Amino acid sequence: MGYDSKKIEDFKNVWVFCEQRQGKLMNTDFELLSEGRKLANDLGVKLVGLLLGDKVEGLAKELGSYGADEVVLCESELLKDYTTDAYAKVICDVVQDIKPEILLFGASNIGRDLAPRCAARLHTGLCADCTHLDIDVPQYKEFLRANSTLDVDGTKWDEGDRNLKMTRPAFGGHLMATIICPRFRPAMATVRPGVLKKAAPDQAKADAVQIVRPNFSLEASDLKTTVLAVEKAAKELVDLIGADFIVSVGRGIAADVEKGKKIAEDLANELGGVVGGSRAAIDSGWLSADRQVGQTGKTVHPKVYVALGISGAIQHKVGMQDSECIIAVNKNSAAPIFEVADYGICGDLFTVGPMLTEAIKAAKAAK
Length: 367
Hints:
With 367 residues, the chain is of the alpha/beta class. The protein has two domains: 8-222, HUPs (Rossmann fold, 3-Layer(aba) Sandwich); 245-366, Rossmann fold (3-Layer(aba) Sandwich), CATH 3.40.50. It is 31% helix and 21% strand. The chain is built from ten helices and 17 strands. A seven-stranded parallel sheet has the order 7-11-6-1-4-5-12. A five-stranded parallel sheet has the order 14-13-15-16-17. A three-stranded antiparallel sheet has the order 8-9-10, with helices on one face. Helix 3 (84-98) crosses helix 4 (109-122) and helix 7 runs parallel beside helix 10 (349-366). The chain is globular, with a radius of gyration of 23 Å. 44% of the residues are buried.
């Protein structure tokens, strides 16, 4: 059978492109596989990890432990280092041969480069930078009830719709849009790192995973570029996604920006955490872009999230509302941030912030 992206009945199974660098899997792979497992269960199909590289078979079991039933393994010396030409050719050849109905990529530098190239060649659509995925309409409606102002019950729904519903920020994060790809397959999406929850690894699933080695051709002549060396540059970027404690500042520090930042840094240091910020703080140039929390920044799940002077617009709340404990400090008692806070303090951050730091110091000293 030939490949026709419009013959959607020919396509089956959920695939996840599992990115590896120098033989090490990315954390986003595990997040995508965990979510892909749910999608595959909803559809009643297999979850498949797509792994490219050179001598990377040893990584297959780890992919299985996060839910993959199979790993489609493509190995070649020409796949050792990532190049767009090589990876796109192999992925497209294999997809056209086996025909998955869903293909997910992490929205990493590699995923953002690779997925559009593949989507164009495969004659299908791509939804970029997704923050939520659904198959079943009832589950999607529950998501909307919790995260939108849409009149869910007053809207007409096709309850039998089995298209992948891909939700992403739109219009600079002021709206959320859900995209479907009803006429072509595979349905493709890149997913923002950190927004999906990683399941616990399962050794039984790791032992049961099946390895599939598809036929593909790749010659040096297929590559328009050659990787001469891989240089790792040390760049000081804050790891918001991996932090257990985050202290974020917002527009409330405008009265004295440097003092506000110092208060946040002192509190973060005492907690052993890092400083983040709302979009207002980043747009104002008070903090660098890698510190932004929210729909257009990073989605975080720390043990403790402290919001200093952040009103709590929807685009910020979506990025931090799943934190284990949220402490909000704001002078406005009606600030939306208090709706998701476990502990709310109505007061001036310039007064309350140092008090929190001193309280933590005292508690640590008493131990």
